[in-house]
Design a protein that fits this description.
mainly beta; eight-stranded antiparallel β-sheet
C-alpha cells in the first residue's frame, strides 16, 4: 500500500470518528500521546479500553512503578496485541489476536489477581502466572501515570526513571482510543478516566471532541461506568445493587425465604462437568433467622468440604482439606445471631504452597465485619475444589461431611455469592433466573416475607426505652402486647395528653406498669383517673404473658393471660386525647418526673421495665419494635429475647454486697457498703458537713408525689438533721434525723403527722444505712440490717406530697441565702449514698462539680443543687478486674456502648506511655465517642451530629507516671457533658440535646490497624494503649475485658503486670535493651549476634580467595527512601585492602561502602552531596581476630564504631546537606562494584536497616544471588566467636558506670520500689527504648609475662599506677577538649554505640591539672567538626621488640599515625578538613621526647565550654618487666653495646640536622586558625565537646575513584615516597616556628 493511500485511509477514519460525535480521542503526529491518572493495580485490578487503527505496530499503553522493576506495556506487533509485564519475578509476555489493525473497534481488558494476569481481546482470553513471592505492583504513591499512545519526549533524558527504558523507542500508536476504565484510587471501584493535564504536556492537545456525552455529562448513577459507543452512551451497572438504563433503580434483592424444606444446590458430577478449582475462594452471604440451628452453606469435592451453619445462636465452620481438618465456632459473649436481624458472613480460604508436597490453607470467618476467627490447615493439597454445593439445607443435612447441625435453615438468605479465583456466582440470582446450573428443591419464595413486627426486643436497663407515635384512641381503641420479666417493678407503657385547659381537670393519661409483681393499668380521660390491677397472679416469673386492652368511651376491659378485669373512668369525659408520644419500656432520665401523675409510682421512682416485649399491636396495626430499636437506642434495647444463666452464680457483687437476680443481670445491693457502681466496686463519693454546711436540691414547682423512696448512709457522733423536704407555704414534709441515738422519720401531710423510730446507738462514729419508703399511706423505716419498722395511716388528701426543695444536713433558703431555723441542729459528720426517688444527689453534685475538696470552700450553684460542704478523698482506690494491654497493637471489643441519651463510663488506667487510644465507638452518620491519651493527658472526643467536641483534662502533671488514675465520663443532663480525671473536672454544655447514635462495637485499648487512618476528625491517636486498665464500669454492668469481650485478644492478660526494667547486663555483646510495658527485648541489630539476649552466633559466610560475591536485591515493595540507616557486621580477615559491602540506589548515585584500607576500617557514604568518609585508623582489623563494625546515619550525620573502640562521628558543616538515601535497592557483599577489591575471610550477622541478607541467603531466598568462592560457614572459630577482641579505647574502659547511656530520665532509678521508678516516655515509637551500656562478656586479649610490646592495657588511676599495681613508669597522655598539645591524637568522651553517639548527650568529667602530663611529639590541633574521633591511643616503642615502628605506623598523606616518625607541617582548610600532605622530605629517625605540664585553660566563650573547661584524662599503662629473665646475659650485653652505638649515631645525625637548619634556614611550622567559629548546631551539641580524628577526607578535591566507594584521597602511597608540597594561603593564621 502506498504512503498516499495510507494517508487517505487514515483521514477517512478520522472523518468517520468525527461523524459519530468523536467518542474517542485521536492520537497522531500532532497528538503523539495522552496521559491519565495512576492505575491502582496493587494485587488485584482491571484496566479496560477500546481502540481502532490501521497501523500494525504501535505502543498502546504503558505504566510502571517509577523506574524499579514492575511495568505493564501494551502494544500492537504485526497486528496482534502483546502484553508485556513484570511483577518482580521476571518479564512475562501474553499475545492475543491477529489483524487487529482493521480499522474496527476492539475491546481490551487487562486483569490481574495476585500472581495471575490475563489479557482479553474481543472475548478471547490468555492467562499467565508470574514467578516470585511478591506480586504487588510497585507503590501507588511512586507509580507512574498511565500513558496511552506513547511517552513524553522528556523521558529521553530520564531513562533511569523507566522500569522498561526501551519503551521510549517503541513506535507511537496512530489511531483512536476510547472507554479507558480502571480504578485510580485505593479502595475505589473502576471508573471512566479523563485526560490528565500536566505542565509537562504544554504542547499536547487531545483529540476528544465535545460531542462525547460521557465527557459532557456522565448520565450514570450509583457508580455506573459510562461507555461510549457508536450509537451513543450506555451505562454499565457494575454495582450489583442497581439496574436500569442509567443504574438508577434499586435492583430486586437476591434474597429468598427458607422454611426448612427448601434449598438450592448444584452437582457438577451429575452433568459430567469438571469441579471448580481455585487457589482461593470466598463465600459471602447475609442471613436472618429466629432459629438457633440451621445449615447455611456447604461446598465440597470428594473428601474435601466446607460446612457453614448457625449453631446454638453462633456461627459454626467445619472444613476438611487433604488430610487436615479444622473447626471454628464464633459465638460472642452476650451476642447471638438468631435474633432475626440481618447478619453478614464472609469466609475466605487461600492456599499457599510451602513445599512441592505440602501446602498451607489459611481460612478466616467474619460475621458483621466484627466477630472473626482465623485458622489454617496444612496438608498434601494444591487446590480448592467444588463439585457440589448446598444453600439453606439438603435432603439429609446430617449426612453431609463435617455436619454439626442436622436441620435445614429457617429464615431469610440474600446475596449468597461463591467466588473462586476470578469466577463469581450469585447462587440465588442464578436460581431466580432459571439457570441450568442450580437445582431448586421445594417452593422457594424469592423475597424475605418474614415480618419483624412479631420479633421481641429486650430492654436491658431501667433507662432503656423506645418512643413511638401516640396511641390514637380518642373514642375507642385497642392495644395488645406480650411481655416477659423477673423484675417486680417497671413502667411498660406511658402516653400522656396536653396540660388541661381548665382548673380542676387533669391531663389525659394512659399507662401500664408492673408494681410489686402485678400489672396495673392507669387511665384518665381528663375528668379523673382510675387505677386497675389487671392481673390476679404475679407476672414477674420469667414466662411470657399476654396483655390486651379494649376501651370504648369511659368503659374498658383489660385481659391478662385470659383473666378479665373491667373498669370505668370517673367524670363525664369520654374521650382520650393523647398529645404526647408513646413511651415503651420507661421514660429515661431526660423525662422530668414532675410531669408524671403522682399515682404512677414506677414513673416517680424512675423504675423502667427490664425484660422482653413482643407483638405490640395498636388498633390492629403491628408495631415493629426492632426497627424502632435500630433507629433509636440500639445498645440498650436489643433484638430477640434470650434467657441467660443466673448471674449471681459468679458472685459479681464486691465488698460484701448482696446479689439478687434481675433479667439477665445481677442486681447488687451496695447500700450497706462504702462502695457503689454496678457491682459495688467503686468508692462512693463522701461529703463532710461541719454543722454550718449543707446540700440543697431544688425540684421545682408542681413536683407532687404519692410515693417516696429514700436511702442515706451516715457517720456521726452527734444528733442532727439528716434530710428534710420542704414546700413553700406548707408544713408538709418528710424528715429524717438522728435523735437520742436513734433514727427518727417524721411524715407530715395536711394536719396529720406520723413518726417512726428505728436503730440504736447510731451516733457511735460508725457507718449506718437508713432506708425510708412511703407508698401512699404505707410507711417503712429500716436502719442497717434490722427488721424494718412499718406503719399505715391516712395522711392528707390522696396521700400526695408536694416537694419544692430537699435539704441534706441542714436547712437553707436559696433565695434569701440564710439558714432556716429548725428544732434540730444541723448535721456534723459524713454522708454518702443519698438517693431520693432514684436520683443520687451526692453523685450528681460530684459529677456537676458542685462543692470543693479544698479547705477553702465556696458555695457552688448549678441548675438545681447548692452545696458548700467538702468532698472527702478516699484513702485508696479499689482496683478490680484489672488487665494488661501488652502492646500498642492489643485491643478488644465489647458490646455497643449504651450512651444514646446519657453517658456512663468509669475506669482506672496506669501506664508509662504518653499516647494511646483507650476507647472508641463509632456510630451512625457522624456520631462517635472516643477517649484517648494524648501527650500524657486524657481527651474525650465525641460528635452528636452537630460538630466534634473535645474535652481535655487540665492537670499539671502528666498521667503516664505508672500510677493509677481515675476517669469518669458522664452526661447528667441532655445538654451537659462532664469528664473527671482524678480531681480535675471538665464540663461542656451543648446547645442541642441530640442523642448519641452509636453502632458496631466498643473498642477498648485500640482499634484494628487499618481503622486508624479512617478515625474521625478530632481523634488524634494512631496507636493503641499500652499499660493497665481496671475497674471498668458501664451502664448497668462492670464489664470484664476478658470474659465479656465479643472481639477477644490473646495479647490481653489478666492482672496488672508492672513494667520489667532493663538492667546493665540484660543484653550481651552491646545489644540494646528495649523496654516494653511488662517485659523487655534485646535489639541485636548492631551486634552481629542473635538470640533472645544477643549471645548466639549469627549465620556466617566464608569468602575464599577466589573472589566470592553475594548480591541482595530488595523487593520492589521494600525499596524505600531512608533518612536513617543502621548497618552492622561481624568479620574476620587478614586482608588489609578490601571492600566488605556496598549499598546502592536504584535510580541515583547514592551509595554506602564499608571497606578496609591499609588494615583500617572505613565507611564512605554519599546521599547526594558528595562522598563523606568515616574511619578509625587507631584500630587494625586485618589481624585475623573477630571484629564488629557498627554504622549509623541520621540525615547527614553518621557514626562508626569498631568493637569497643570509641565512636567516630561525622557531622558535615556548611551549606544545605542532603539527608535522604534515595531508593535503596541493592547490597553487594564481599566486594565493590564489579567485584573489585574482593573480601577474603568470614562475615557474620550482617544487618542493614533490619534486613539480614546472610540469613536470607541461608534460607535460599531468590532475592539473594551468590557467585564465586563463597560458602556457608557453619560455626565461627571458638576463639573468635565473641566480639571485642581488640582492647577498648576511650577513657574509663569497659564497665565504668559513667558510660551508661540513657534515652531519658528515670532509667537509672535507684529506688528499691519498682513503682517509684517511673519509666519515661520514649517518644512516638512503639516502645520505651533504654540503651544500656553492656560490659564485655569476653575476656580481653591476654598479655604474657614480660611482654611489653606496646599493646594498650586497661586504664588505671594515678594512685594505682605505682610499683606493684601493674603500672610503672609509663607515659601518661592528657587530652583536653580545647586545642591542645599532644602526639597528634585527638580525644573525646567514648561512646557505647553509634546510636547513642548521635542521639544522646554525654556527661562530662574533669581531671586535675596535675594529671595533664604527656610524653609525646607536640602539635597543636584544633577541632574538626566534620570528623569527630572519640578515641585515644598511644603506640610506644619499647626496646624489647625488634619490630620497627614502621610496622605499626603508616607514612602516607591519608593517615596521621599515632606516633609520627617525622615532623611534618599540617594545614587546615577553611572547612576544617586537615591536609596531611608532607612539605619536608627530611625524616627524623625518632621522636624528640620532653615533658610539659598544662594549666587549666579558662573558657574562651565558645558555646560548648559552658563557662569552664572539661578535661578528659585517659591513662594507659604497659605491663611491668620483672626480674625473671627470658634472655641470657650475653644477649643483654650485646644489646647494650648496640644501643650505645645507635645512640652515638643518632646524636651525630641530630647535630647534622641542626647545622643544616641553621645554614638553610629550614623550619617546621604549626598553624592554628584562631578566627574559626566553633559554634555547632543543636544536633552537634548532643555530642559534647569532642576532638576530631585526623585523616584526610579529600572531599573537596579529587574525583571519586573507579569503585565509587573508596575514600577519596585515601589511596596508599608507595613506601619511601612523599606527596608533593601543596602550599595553601590562609588569612588570619598564626605561625609558630620550632
Amino acid at each position: 500500500m502506498s504512503a498516499d493511500l495510507r494517508t487517505m485511509r487514515y483521514v477517512l477514519v478520522c472523518l468517520l470518528s468525527l461523524t459519530f460525535n468523536s467518542f474517542a480521542f485521536v492520537l497522531d503526529k500532532q497528538n503523539p500521546y495522552s496521559q491519565f491518572r495512576k492505575w491502582n493495580v496493587g494485587l488485584n485490578g482491571t484496566l479496560e479500553l477500546e481502540f481502532k487503527t490501521d497501523q500494525p505496530n504501535g505502543l498502546l499503553l504503558y505504566t510502571d512503578d517509577g523506574g524499579t522493576y514492575d511495568f505493564f506495556e501494551l502494544k500492537l506487533v504485526n497486528g496482534a496485541l502483546r502484553l508485556r509485564y513484570n511483577l518482580g519475578g521476571g518479564a512475562q509476555i501474553i499475545t492475543v489476536g491477529s489483524n487487529l489493525n482493521d480499522g474496527h473497534w476492539h475491546k481490551v481488558q487487562v486483569a490481574r489477581r495476585d500472581e495471575h494476569t490475563s489479557l482479553t481481546v474481543d472475548g478471547i482470553v490468555q492467562r499467565k502466572t508470574s514467578r516470585g513471592k511478591e506480586y504487588v505492583f510497585g507503590k501507588f504513591n511512586t507509580n507512574s501515570d498511565v500513558f496511552v499512545g506513547g511517552l513524553p519526549s522528556s523521558y529521553n533524558s530520564k531513562l533511569t526513571t523507566l522500569a522498561l527504558p526501551s519503551v521510549i523507542f517503541e513506535p507511537k500508536f496512530r489511531g483512536s482510543v476510547r472507554n479507558l476504565v480502571y480504578s485510580d484510587l485505593p479502595g475505589q471501584p473502576p471508573r471512566r478516566q479523563e485526560l490528565r493535564h500536566s505542565r509537562d504536556l504544554k504542547s499536547t492537545r487531545t483529540g476528544n471532541a465535545s460531542g462525547d456525552a460521557c465527557e459532557r455529562r456522565d448520565p450514570c448513577q450509583h457508580g455506573g461506568v459510562c461507555i461510549s459507543t457508536d450509537d451513543g452512551p450506555i451505562c454499565e451497572c457494575r454495582d450489583g445493587d442497581y439496574e436500569g438504563a442509567f443504574c438508577e433503580r434499586d435492583k430486586a434483592p437476591s434474597e429468598a425465604t427458607f422454611r426448612g424444606a427448601e434449598f438450592l444446590s448444584y452437582d457438577l458430577t451429575q452433568t459430567g462437568g469438571e469441579p471448580i478449582v481455585s487457589t482461593q475462594d470466598v463465600i459471602s452471604l447475609y442471613f436472618k433467622t429466629r432459629q438457633p440451628n440451621g445449615l447455611l452453606f456447604y461446598t465440597g469435592h470428594e473428601a474435601d468440604y466446607l460446612n457453614l451453619a448457625v449453631r446454638d445462636g453462633g456461627l459454626s465452620l467445619t472444613m476438611g482439606l487433604g488430610n487436615g481438618k479444622q473447626e471454628m465456632h464464633i459465638k460472642p459473649s452476650k451476642t447471638r445471631f438468631d435474633d432475626h436481624q440481618w447478619h453478614k458472613l464472609t469466609v475466605r480460604r487461600k492456599i499457599q504452597e510451602i513445599t512441592p508436597f505440602t501446602s498451607f490453607c489459611r481460612v478466616s470467618a467474619v460475621v458483621d465485619d466484627v466477630y472473626s476467627e482465623h485458622s489454617h490447615v496444612a496438608g498434601s493439597f494444591t487446590m480448592l475444589a467444588s463439585s457440589r454445593a448446598h444453600v439453606g439445607g439438603s435432603l439429609n443435612a446430617r449426612a453431609l461431611p463435617g455436619a454439626r447441625v442436622h436441620t435445614n435453615f429457617i429464615g431469610c438468605l440474600k446475596k449468597v455469592e461463591f467466588s473462586a479465583d476470578t469466577l463469581r456466582l450469585n447462587l440465588i440470582d442464578l436460581a431466580r433466573t432459571g439457570s441450568k446450573l442450580i437445582t431448586v428443591t421445594g417452593r422457594l419464595e424469592y423475597a424475605c416475607t418474614a415480618t419483624d413486627s412479631a420479633d421481641p426486643v429486650t430492654f436491658t436497663t431501667r433507662d432503656a426505652h423506645l418512643i413511638l407515635p401516640k396511641w390514637e384512641a380518642v373514642k375507642t381503641g385497642t392495644i395488645s402486647f406480650k411481655f416477659r420479666t423477673n423484675e417486680p417493678n417497671g413502667l411498660i407503657l406511658f402516653n400522656m395528653g396536653a396540660k388541661p385547659p381548665r382548673v380542676g381537670c387533669t391531663a389525659d393519661l394512659f399507662a401500664v406498669e408492673i408494681l410489686n409483681g402485678y400489672i396495673y393499668v392507669h387511665m384518665d380521660l381528663g375528668s379523673g383517673g382510675v387505677r386497675v390491677r389487671a392481673s390476679r397472679r404475679r407476672v414477674d416469673d420469667s414466662h411470657w404473658h399476654e396483655f390486651l386492652l379494649r376501651r370504648t368511651g369511659r368503659d374498658g376491659r383489660v385481659t391478662v393471660d385470659g383473666a378479665n378485669a373491667e373498669f370505668k373512668t370517673p367524670g363525664e369525659s369520654n374521650q382520650l386525647e393523647l398529645d404526647g408520644q408513646l413511651y415503651v419500656g420507661g421514660l429515661g432520665q431526660e423525662y422530668s418526673a414532675a410531669r408524671t401523675p403522682p399515682a404512677l409510682w414506677t414513673a416517680a421512682l424512675r423504675q423502667g421495665f427490664v425484660g422482653c416485649i413482643r407483638d405490640l399491636v395498636l388498633n390492629g396495626k403491628p408495631q415493629d419494635l426492632t426497627a424502632y430499636a435500630r433507629q433509636q437506642d440500639s445498645a440498650s434495647v436489643r433484638p430477640a429475647c434470650h434467657v441467660l444463666m443466673k448471674q449471681c452464680v459468679s458472685s459479681p457483687c464486691q465488698n460484701g454486697a448482696g446479689c439478687s437476680e434481675g433479667w439477665n443481670r445481677a442486681l447488687c445491693d451496695c447500700s450497706t457498703t462504702n462502695y457503689g457502681g454496678p457491682t459495688c466496686g467503686r468508692e462512693s463519693p463522701t461529703i463532710y458537713l461541719n454543722g454550718s454546711q449543707h446540700l440543697t436540691a431544688a425540684l421545682g414547682p408542681e413536683h407532687v408525689t404519692q410515693t417516696e423512696e429514700l436511702l442515706l448512709r451516715f457517720r456521726t457522733t452527734k444528733a442532727g438533721l439528716l434530710v428534710r423536704t420542704a414546700t413553700e407555704g406548707s408544713a408538709d414534709r418528710i424528715e429524717l434525723a438522728v435523735a437520742a441515738g436513734r433514727v427518727r422519720a417524721s411524715v407530715r401531710l395536711g394536719d396529720r403527722e406520723k413518726n417512726l423510730l428505728a436503730g440504736t446507738n447510731v451516733a457511735d462514729d460508725k457507718w449506718h444505712t437508713v432506708r425510708f419508703s412511703r407508698r401512699a399511706s404505707n410507711l417503712k423505716l429500716q436502719v442497717d440490717g434490722a427488721q424494718p419498722v412499718r406503719a399505715e395511716t391516712i395522711l392528707g388528701k390522696a396521700s400526695t406530697l408536694e416537694i419544692t426543695t430537699i435539704h441534706l444536713g441542714g436547712l437553707y433558703h436559696p433565695e434569701e441565702e440564710i439558714q432556716i431555723t429548725s428544732t434540730l441542729p444541723n448535721f456534723v459528720g459524713y454522708l454518702q449514698k443519698f438517693v431520693f426517688n432514684g436520683v443520687k444527689y451526692i453523685d450528681l453534685a460530684r459529677t456537676l462539680g458542685v462543692g470543693s475538696s479544698n479547705e477553702n470552700n465556696h458555695i457552688y450553684d448549678t441548675s438545681n443543687i447548692i452545696f458548700n460542704g467538702k468532698f472527702v478523698k478516699p484513702d485508696s482506690l479499689n482496683v478490680y478486674k484489672s488487665v494488661t494491654f501488652k502492646s500498642k497493637h492489643t485491643y478488644v471489643g465489647l458490646p455497643l456502648l449504651k450512651a444514646y441519651a446519657n453517658t456512663y463510663l468509669d475506669f482506672y488506667f496506669r501506664t508509662t506511655e504518653m499516647d494511646g487510644l483507650l476507647f472508641y465507638n463509632g456510630g451512625k452518620k457522624q456520631d462517635f465517642i472516643a477517649v484517648e491519651l494524648v501527650n500524657g493527658h486524657i481527651h474525650c472526643v465525641f460528635n452528636l451530629g452537630d460538630g466534634v467536641v473535645t474535652m481535655k483534662d487540665k492537670l499539671k502533671n502528666f498521667l503516664n507516671d505508672n500510677r493509677w488514675h481515675t476517669v469518669s465520663i458522664r452526661r447528667p443532663t441532655p445538654k451537659i457533658h462532664t469528664m473527671q480525671v482524678d480531681d480535675d473536672l471538665e464540663m461542656h454544655t451543648t446547645s442541642s440535646n441530640l442523642m448519641l447514635e452509636l453502632d458496631s462495637v466498643l473498642y477498648v485499648g485500640g482499634v484494628p490497624k487499618d481503622m486508624y487512618t479512617s478515625l474521625p476528625v478530632g481523634v488524634i491517636s494512631r496507636q493503641g494503649f499500652e499499660g493497665c486498665m481496671s475497674s471498668l464500669d458501664l451502664p448497668g454492668e462492670s464489664s470484664s475485658l476478658i470474659e465479656d469481650a465479643v472481639v477477644p485478644s490473646s495479647s490481653l492478660v489478666s492482672g496488672c503486670e508492672g513494667p520489667t526494667k532493663c538492667t546493665h547486663n540484660t543484653c550481651a555483646n552491646k545489644g540494646v535493651c528495649v523496654q516494653q510495658w511488662n517485659t523487655y527485648v534485646c535489639d541485636c541489630e548492631l551486634t552481629s549476634f542473635t538470640g533472645p539476649t544477643c549471645y548466639d552466633e549469627s549465620i556466617a559466610y566464608e569468602f575464599g580467595p577466589g573472589r566470592g560475591i553475594m548480591t541482595f536485591t530488595f523487593a520492589p515493595s521494600a525499596v524505600a527512601d531512608t533518612e536513617t540507616d543502621r548497618v552492622a557486621v561481624g568479620f574476620v580477615t587478614t586482608k588489609s585492602d578490601a571492600v566488605i559491602l556496598r549499598i546502592e540506589s536504584s535510580n541515583t548515585q547514592d551509595y554506602m561502602q564499608m571497606e578496609i584500607i591499609r588494615g583500617n576500617l572505613f565507611m564512605v557514604y554519599n546521599v547526594g552531596d558528595g562522598d563523606h568518609p568515616l574511619g578509625d585508623e587507631t584500630a587494625r582489623v586485618d589481624d585475623g581476630a573477630y571484629h564488629v563494625a557498627r554504622f549509623t546515619r541520621n540525615g547527614s550525620r553518621a557514626a562508626l564504631q569498631i568493637d569497643s573502640y570509641a565512636v567516630i562521628i561525622r557531622h558535615p558543616q556548611g551549606g544545605q546537606q542532603s539527608t535522604v538515601f534515595n531508593s535503596m535497592a541493592r547490597i553487594t557483599i564481599g566486594g565493590g562494584a564489579g567485584g573489585a577489591r574482593s573480601f577474603s575471610g568470614v562475615l557474620a550477622g550482617l544487618a542493614v536497616n533490619g534486613a539480614r541478607p546472610l540469613d536470607r541467603a541461608a534460607a535460599a531466598d531468590p532475592a539473594l544471588a551468590l557467585r564465586g568462592d563463597v560458602r556457608r560457614a557453619h560455626a565461627l572459630d571458638p576463639d573468635l566467636n565473641r566480639m571485642q577482641q581488640t582492647p577498648p579505647s576511650g577513657y574509663g574502659g569497659p564497665g565504668v558506670l559513667d558510660e551508661l547511656v540513657y534515652s531519658g530520665a528515670g532509667s537509672g532509678c535507684r529506688d528499691d520500689d519498682e513503682d517509684a521508678c517511673v519509666l519515661p516516655d520514649a517518644g512516638s515509637g512503639d516502645d520505651l527504648i533504654t540503651p544500656v551500656y553492656v560490659p564485655s562478656t569476653r575476656r580481653p586479649p591476654k598479655m604474657h609475662k614480660g611482654d611489653t610490646s606496646g599493646k594498650l592495657m586497661k586504664p588505671c588511676d594515678d594512685e594505682d599506677c605505682i610499683e606493684g599495681s601493674g603500672a610503672g613508669g609509663e607515659d601518661i597522655i592528657t587530652e583536653p577538649e580545647h586545642p591542645m598539645t599532644s602526639s597528634g591524637v585527638s580525644s573525646t568522651h567514648s561512646m557505647t554505640s553509634p546510636t547513642a553517639a548521635i542521639s544522646t548527650e554525654h556527661e562530662r568529667e574533669r581531671t586535675s591539672p596535675t594529671e595533664a602530663r604527656a610524653t609525646a611529639d607536640t602539635r597543636t590541633t584544633p577541632l574538626d567538626h566534620d570528623n569527630i574521633h572519640a578515641a585515644t591511643r598511644d603506640t610506644a616503642t619499647t626496646p624489647d621488640r625488634t619490630t620497627p615502628t614502621e610496622d605499626r605506623t603508616h607514612t602516607s598523606p591519608q593517615f596521621t599515625p599515632s606516633i609520627p616518625k617525622h615532623t611534618d607541617s599540617t594545614h587546615y582548610t577553611e572547612n576544617n578538613i586537615p591536609d596531611y600532605e608532607d612539605h619536608h622530605p627530611e625524616k627524623e629517625t625518632r621522636t624528640p621526647t620532653f615533658e610539659m605540664e598544662e594549666e587549666r585553660i579558662p573558657s574562651r566563650g565558645h558555646a560548648d565550654y559552658n563557662g569552664y573547661e572539661h578535661e578528659i584524662t585517659t591513662k594507659w599503662y604497659h605491663p611491668k618487666t620483672t626480674d625473671n629473665r627470658v634472655v641470657p646475659p650475653e644477649s643483654e650485653f650485646f644489646a647494650t653495646i648496640v644501643g650505645i652505638v645507635a645512640s652515638v649515631l643518632i646524636a651525630i645525625i641530630l647535630i647534622v640536622i641542626i647545622v643544616l637548619k641553621l645554614v638553610f634556614k629550614l623550619d617546621t611550622s604549626y598553624k592554628v586558625t584562631e578566627d574559626k567559629n566553633y559554634q555547632q548546631s543543636a544536633s552537634a551539641a548532643l555530642l559534647g565537646n569532642q576532638a576530631h580524628s585526623s585523616y584526610q577526607t579529600g572531599a573537596s578535591s579529587g574525583p571519586s575513584n573507579g569503585n565509587g566507594g573508596a575514600v577519596r584521597g585515601l589511596q596508599p602511597l608507595p613506601l619511601g615516597r612523599t606527596a608533593p608540597a601543596q602550599p595553601v594561603k590562609r588569612d588570619g593564621i598564626k605561625e609558630w616556628y620550632v
